[in-house]
Amino acid sequence: MNCLRALHNPLEVEFLRLLLIHTDYIEFEAKEPVKGIAEEIDENLKHLRVPEALAVFVSVEEDDPSNEEDIIEEAIANIIDVFKKVNAERIVLYPYVHLTNKPSHPEDAKRIVIKMFEKLRDKDIEVYRAPFGWYKAFELKCKGHPLSELSRTIIPRPKGREEIVAEITSEYYIIYPDGRVEHIEDLEKMDLSSIEDKALRLYIESEELGIERKGTPLSVNAMRRLELVDYEPASDSGNMRIYPKGAVLFNVLVSWAKKIALEDLKAMEIITPLIYDWSEPDIREQAESFHERHYIVKTPDERKKFVLRFAADFGLFKMMKDATLSYKNLPIRIFEFARSFRYERSGEISGLKRLRSFHMPDLHSFCADIEQGWEEFATLFRHYKRLTDATGIEYAIVFRAAREWWERLRDKLVDLVKESGKPAFIEVLSKMKHYWAIKNEFQAIDSMGGNVQLATVQLDVVDAARYGIYYIDAEGQKRGCIIVHSSIGSIERWIYAVLEEALKKEKPEIPFWLSPIQIRFIPVNDDYVEDCLKLASEIRARVDVDDRDISVAKKIRDAEREWVNMIVVYGEKEKASGKLPVRFRDGHIEEMTIEELKERVKELLGSYPFVPLYLPLRLSLRPKFVG
RNA sequence: GCCACCGUAGCCUAGCCCGGCAGGGCGCCCGCCUUGUAAGCGGGAGGUCCCGGGUUCAAAUCCCGGCGGUGGCUCCA
Predict the structure, then answer these.
(1) Which of A509, A250, A340 is nearest to A241 (CA)?
(2) Within 7 Å: CB of A624 and strand B?
(3) Chain A 254-313 residues whose Cβ is under 7 Å from strand B
(4) What is the pLDDT of residue A525?
(5) I need a labelling partner for A512 at 20 to 30 A (CA). Which of A286, A328, A379, A471 fits?
(6) Does A449 contact strand B, using a CB cutoff of 7 Å?
(7) Same domain flag for A258 and A292
(8) Which of A264, A381, A563 shows the shortest CA–CA distance to A255?
């Protein structure tokens, strides 16, 4: 869900020039004030002679006032660096517009020079300043050693992510379904017992307060024992092997994701390449800005390098940049089932929760304006909530928003939470951290009380113009789209969440529609295998037949350990009566005819997607993959 | 990436602290049993004790380095 970020080049925008001269002395005299610019000064500051000084001539160029502090800081760091290297005793700041041919407004320059002066003084450096806005006479004697004459151009160092993030402060709220918005004064000290929604409470403890979990999530062993997913030692860490039964579960989830996107939301599906040319400037810039967290693929002759995509955005945005869009087309939704790769650091990989290779159903909506964007955000939120509810997993609803957008969208957001009937935790950030104005997260709670993010919806107000994704409005003007990024979350994480939810119970159960094996027939002995095969083939469900030559009790035990939803023992009695004893996970047995069973299956399946079981019908023909 | 713990047959594991023939259960194969709602009985095959190095007469065991897994930290664009 992440983006190509074409950052503007700071070189072209703002800077400050310095000329640094290590002097035996510098002497100046203010002669005449420049009209409208000159600062008022004491008589005794009009004429100064400063020995053993580092003379710093400063000119301020057209600058962006929003970056002023950064520029000053960087300039001070440079001056002090030279000051120490040349071992000067004091500093003289000398405003000198002539170093540039595109000077800033004098008021800005004056303010910046004065601030620099004050900062240097605050660092206990003996510092003097020539008055601003006067015609001055000056004289100096340069020492002439190699470092005695230097010029520096100050470019505000683009801030690292850490710095930007460190400057952002957060406030927290809980929005209740009755419309109440509770401001949390102190997250550390808040009374969690007052939160009725258990998942929300667990989420806050786990993610926001970092309370330690009790141990290894149960799915880590279960995924292997159930022959769903396993580690692949012959690959890189975090690249999993998926067994046939895992593939069934995987494909049901994929069908579900596609059904939501393509049928319910009428998105258009696309397929884009996995690898992207490393020499494309925007791709390279984006990839490099991401801490080397990507795989590189080289051609055999090593003449070309490609980056393995870490999200669907690469191909999608390239495609949309080339597309011609009219306001009449909007909003449009584009879906891609995107296998993605992220080179997560070794300690960050974990079970099915965090992988280096994963499958992300990715849905992007392109909208005309913020109103349409919000409508889309709300629509997607409703869908994802309904669908998350359908899996029966325990989850918390979280929103994050930049302050300006929280203020702007607050009423609408509260209405959305009211409508959802579930309280939501919201983090309000002092400024925008990424591209989104507001985002939503569905946070599932695992068997150990830990949390993992599944679905997300993000309202992106900045990226479209940056990527060159435009539409033509009713007046024929080119305008940037509002992009809503969203996903139900990776298929792997869904497998994790479904298993974790099942494992919270004493007798784990996967919801019928997701379960790899839904019904198992157990013939009492060889004489009934053929009948069972025939019955199994009549039901549109994932059904199999345990035809192994072992005791019925043993077959039942195996079926239970495999979490089969319904077990049917079939022998003489059943053949005679036509009634099937269907054993459910809770242990109770219901007698029903084959027609009644088929009806029950239909009910349970409802409108969920169905994927057949692509495994031998007879258990005796199946290999054991684990154990 | 950092810290801690772990790595013995396809799977689960005993043995490791205190160096001396690698043991059990599941699964698999063979045979018997013909099975009725959570493990029927007997036999057999199966080992690079994660990898590399070191100490020692002798290393699964002790030491060093690596790889892999899990948890925590950080991170999650």
Answers:
(1) A250
(2) yes
(3) 286-287, 289-291, 293-294, 310
(4) 93
(5) A379
(6) no
(7) no
(8) A264
A514 is a domain residue:
no
What does the pLDDT read at residue A230? 95
Return the DSSP state at A109. Answer: H
pLDDT tens digits for range A349-385? 999 999 999 999 999 999 999 999 999 999 999 999 9
> Does residue A239 share a domain with residue A90?
no
Question: pLDDT tens-digit profile of A125-153?
Answer: 999 999 888 898 899 999 888 888 888 87
Strand B positions closer than 7 A to protein CB: 1-3, 10-12, 26-28, 32-40, 68-77
Is A164 inside any structural domain? no
CA distances from A428 to A168, A177, A253 (A): 10, 19, 33
DSSP of A553-578, one letter per residue?
A: HHHHHHHHHTT-SEEEEESHHHHHH-
For residue A350, give the nucleotide whose C1' atom is nearest its CA. Answer: B70
Does residue A151 share a domain with residue A95? yes
Is there a domain that residue A376 lies in?
yes
Residue span of the structural domain in which A591 resides: 519-621
How many residues make up chain A in this entry? 627
Are A389 and A464 within one domain? yes
Q: Which nucleotide is nearest to A220 (CA to C1')?
A: B70
- pLDDT (tens digit per residue) in A313-337: 889 999 999 999 999 999 999 999 9
A578 beta carbon to strand B: under 7 Å = no
pLDDT tens-digit map of A203-262: 999 999 988 777 899 999 999 999 999 999 889 999 999 999 999 999 999 999 999 999
**b vs e for A47-78, b when ≥16 Cβ sit within 10 Å of the residue's Cβ?**
ebebeebbbbbbbbbebeeebbebbbbbbbeb
Same domain? A32 vs A52:
yes
User: Separation of CA A491 and C1' B12 in angstroms?
Assistant: 29
A589 CB and strand B closer than 7 A: yes
Q: Is the CB of A209 under 7 A from strand B?
A: no
Domain count, chain A: 4
Q: Tell whether the model's pLDDT for residue A11 goes beyond 60.
A: no
CATH number at residue A601: 3.40.50.800
Are both A398 and A469 inside the same structural domain? yes
The answer on A359 and A264 residing in a single domain is yes
Rounded distance between C-alpha atoms, residue A401 and residue A382, angstroms: 18
CA of A213 to C1' of B15 (A): 32
